[in-house]
Amino acid sequence: MVSNLERVLVRTPTTVGEFVEQGAWRMPDTVALLQEHKSFVQLLESLGCHVDVAESIDGLVDSVYMHDPMIMTAHGAILLRMAKPVRSAEPAEFRKTLERIGVPILGELTAPAFADGGDKVWLDEKTLLIGHSYRTNTDGIEQIREMLKPFGVDVYSFDLPHYEGPGAVLHLMSVLSPISYDKAVVYEPLAPARLLQFLTSRGISWFTVSEKEMLTQGSNVLTIAPNVVVLAAGNPEIEAKLRGAGVQVHLFAGNNVAVKGDGGPTCMTAPLIRSKK
Q1: Is residue 54 assigned to a domain?
Q2: Residue 26 domain-assigned?
Q3: What CATH number does residue 67 fall under?
Q4: Would strands 154-159 and 127-132 be described as parallel, antiparallel, or unpaired?
Q5: Which of 89, 97, 177, 265 could make an SS bond with 221 (beta carbons 3.0 to 4.6 A apart)?
Q6: For residues 60 and 64, what is the distance between their CA atoms, to the nearest angstrom?
């Protein structure tokens, strides 16, 4: 998740749907929603990414968060089953998009498994961390582990806390974002102790995020290349820490498309190709 991002898939947000009642968003300005997403795409392109843009899907307001319906691997995509009822149709839509643009599919989860892509973090090509949460269950973790076993991938799972309960969203990537091979951004109060111990055992240190900035996506950071990141604007504390350590920070205005839907820049992207140059 920190190698050079070469190709990435995003979806244009819909302006048609139940943002508050079903999506649990704070109601966005739908004009700004589209403009923010367009500017985000332009930023990714300016940073050297090839961006595939999927069409919007009326009614599926969360579908702008393209990180969640699948896990991308070096061997193809794993399509997931989503526990949030209003998102259950998204993996099938994702399959259509992947087939259209020629991305191979490694497999897909079957009942009773469910999982969200936001609960996974690749530390390297052979190490996958998965959060056990209200959005990702034991069956989901085990099916993913079995799919990746032939490729020598080690899968480690970590229990996430209750926090605000099943109706809210708390992913592993709500509390952990790698930004280089030995650095990460972490919201410590909700990070599992075993996870922090695991990071330390791998020689990974981290920059801490405040509660205020966790709530405005300060701990959900998209890495374009080692120490080159995209951060939602409005998080000056973590921005200053990163810049002070020599990290190249690119800001995007995402108050509507990111913050009001509880999804940061990583949530908005489905990385398709990352490479070490």
Answers
A1: yes
A2: yes
A3: 3.75.10.10
A4: parallel
A5: 177
A6: 8
**C-alpha to C-alpha distance for 118 and 115, rounded to whole angstroms:** 9
The CB density around residue 134, as the number of other CB atoms within 10 Å, is 22
E strand or H helix that includes residue 249? strand 248-252
Domains of the chain: total: 1
Indicate whether 94 pLDDT > 90. yes
Task: Please report, as a single letter, which amino acid is at residue 215.
Answer: L
Alpha helices of the chain — where are they, by DSSP H? 30-46, 90-101, 138-148, 193-201, 211-214, 236-244
How far is CA 162 from each of CA 65, 81, 244, rounded to the nearest angstrom? 22, 21, 34
Output the pLDDT for position 236.
Answer: 98
Closest CA to 98 of 107, 111, 88: 107
User: Do 31 and 240 meet the contact criterion of CB atoms below 8 Å apart?
Assistant: no
Whether 80 shows a pLDDT value over 80: the answer reads yes
**Contacts with 8 (C-beta within 8 Å, 6 or more apart), sequence order:** 44, 49, 50, 51, 52, 269, 270, 271, 272
Residue 166 in this model has a pLDDT that exceeds 70 = yes
